[in-house]
Design a protein that fits this description.
alpha/beta; 7-stranded mixed sheet
Length: 201
């Protein structure tokens, strides 16, 4: 039996982009920038933390917004079906402090993500990345212990894990990324993605 693990991105694939939702809730449009706009995640996060500080916003305010975010319609059903036929790990560059409430709504799938450094007063002072280039590094590590990976995501920071996997798919991605990577199959619906994954298993 093939030992497969499906590795999925979280934001844009299963749940809406957290920072975009927070940008809308807080009325700070600059926070809409994501890895689709700024591929350098370190740079993006430092810039975001600067804006939060400037506006006096901390973890509590972001978590209040996240509590109101629901998964993309169909995401939980897709995940439930997928987990009934194979192993699934969500690999995300988000933070455990953000992901928690969303994992509950998705039925507590396994997630590998990063963590925020938060001061006693709730100010987000920094962030700790689990590992450099986390998505790619994680699929390579899974492969090193005998798993074959099948990966899907929507953004620049998903390309490494998609390209390094035995099968990889873009999902709900941008026109630009699809144009830059015509070799990667691109899907828009969970039914299409499910069919592609089942074929690859």
């Amino acid at each position: 039996m093939d030992m497969n693990i499906v590795c999925l991105d979280l934001e844009g694939v299963l749940v809406p982009e957290i920072w975009i939702a927070f940008a809308e809730a807080s009325g700070i449009p600059e926070l809409k920038r994501t890895t689709r706009d700024e591929p350098d995640y370190d740079k993006l996060m430092k810039w975001r933390l600067g804006i939060l500080k400037e506006h006096g916003l901390g973890l509590k305010e972001i978590q209040e917004t996240i509590a109101k975010i629901d998964p993309i319609p169909g995401a939980k059903e897709f995940l439930d079906e997928l987990r009934s036929i194979t192993q699934v790990i969500i690999i995300s560059d988000t933070f455990s402090q953000f992901a928690g409430p969303l994992m509950k709504k998705l039925g507590y799938p396994t997630i590998f993500c990063n963590s925020l450094e938060v001061a006693d007063n709730g100010e987000i002072t920094g962030f700790k990345m689990r590992v450099e280039n986390s998505k790619y590094t994680t699929v390579k590590a899974l492969q090193s212990i005998g798993f074959q990976t099948i990966a899907s995501g929507d953004s620049h920071n998903d390309l490494g894990m998609i390209q390094a996997s035995k099968a990889g798919f873009l999902f709900k991605s941008t026109e630009q990324i699809k144009k830059d990577h015509p070799e990667l199959p691109a899907y828009e619906t969970y039914d299409e993605l499910m069919a592609a994954i089942k074929k690859a298993l």
